[in-house]
Amino acid sequence: MSDVGVISHEYQTASELAKKLNDALIVIKKVHYRLASSKKLSDEEISQSRQLLTDILHKLMTAFSAKVQKEVAVSPGEVDLPSSLLQRIRIKQKPKIVYYLADLRKATEHLEKGIDHLTDEDLNLLDEMCAAADMQTATVFQKFWKE
Questions:
Q1: What is the model's pLDDT at position 144?
Q2: What would the mean pLDDT of 68-76 be, rounded to a whole number?
Q3: pLDDT band at residue 143 under the 50/70/90 scheme
Q4: Most buried of 8, 44, 98, 116 (most Cβ within 10 A)?
Q5: Residue (of 49, 48, 85) closest to 64 by Cα position
Q6: What percent of the chain is modeled with pLDDT above 90?
Q7: Within a 13 Å sphere around the CA of 82, how many CA atoms are in the beta-carbon half?
Q8: Angle 62-33-129 (CA atoms, 0-180°, nearest 5)?
Q9: Are 37 and 30 in contact (CB under 8 A)?
């Protein structure tokens, strides 16, 4: 595969992940904030969004903590996170990685208990995760057009 083909595939993967994350977070926020549009969402849509975000949080904890790797069972249907995205998050969170892991754990626990258990801090963490995925997509897009 040519360099352009590899970058094209990387862009497609990054953009699909960013879209899935953003769409899932929008669903969760609609339900959490009890917006009128949340009434149009099916239980399946809500459940899938919650599960996707939970899987991503588990994946991040697994990637950033050797201890957590032994404790967290990774589900087979889980979305795969590109190493470049993990690296982007790792670099941003490096000075406070211990606190970041604690925040990931809390957000995961709250999300697993139910959307009503999410705090503003949890939603901010999920927003940051989506922003990192969006930035990764933009970076790959720029790389694609340079080729």
A1: 66
A2: 43
A3: confident
A4: 8
A5: 85
A6: 60
A7: 21
A8: 25
A9: yes
Collect all residues with Cβ–Cβ distance below 8 Å to 105 and sequence separation of at least 6: 61
Q: Whole-angstrom Cα distance, residue 34 to residue 4?
A: 44
Average pLDDT over residues 56-61: 94
Residue 113 CB-density burial (10 A; 0-12 exposed, 13-18 middle, 19+ buried): exposed
Q: What is the value of pTM for the model shown? A: 0.84
Question: What's the topology of domain 3-146?
Answer: Four Helix Bundle (Hemerythrin (Met), subunit A) (1.20.120)
**What is the widest separation between alpha-carbon atoms in the chain?**
48
Contact 96, 27 (CB under 8 A): no
Write a three-state SS string for 15-80: HHHHHHHHHHHHHHHHHHCCCHHHHHCCHHHHHHHHHHHHHHHHHHHHHHCHHHHHHCCCCCCCCC
C-alpha to C-alpha distances, 24 to 56, 67, 98, 140, nearest whole angstrom: 11, 28, 26, 22
- Burial label for 133, CB within 10 Å (0-12, 13-18, 19+), is buried
